[in-house]
Amino acid sequence: MESNRNIIFDCKYHVVFCPKYRKKVLIEPVDIRLKELFLEKAMELRTEIVEMEIMPDHVHLLIKCDPKFGIHRVVKHLKGYTSRVLRMEFKHLKSRLPSLWTNSYFVATVGTVQLDVIKKYIESQKERSD
């Protein structure tokens, strides 16, 4: 569990995105540098990358972030920062792709408690107040 000034939260998201045209450009040494950049930017955003896997043509991230900041902003910052730095450091990325990442991505919430458990908890709260 995490907290900011007025909420306690445990929000985790599975995020997947790809390089433009699904090109297989995320190979050594680009993939190693990409992992470093993700961790660097996540720390700056006060976001945790719980798990990550870099495939040649896509990225999987398990991100834990403050819902007040929002997963969309986290993904936007991660993609923008890594695209800028990688294209500067690896000139072949700049010549082969107009931008590193596609505009789209996949995101799904990852629950820590099952729905039926939450329903039972809510129902038990009513019984406690009676």
From TrEMBL:
One of its GO terms (biological process) is DNA transposition. InterPro entries: Transposase_17, Transposase_17_sf. Pfam families: Y1_Tnp. GO terms for molecular function: DNA binding; transposase activity. Residues 8-125 form the Transposase IS200-like domain. PANTHER family: TRANSPOSASE FOR INSERTION SEQUENCE ELEMENT IS200. NCBIfam families: transpos_IS200 (NF033573). This is Transposase orfA for insertion sequence element IS200/IS605 group. It comes from Brevibacillus borstelensis AK1.
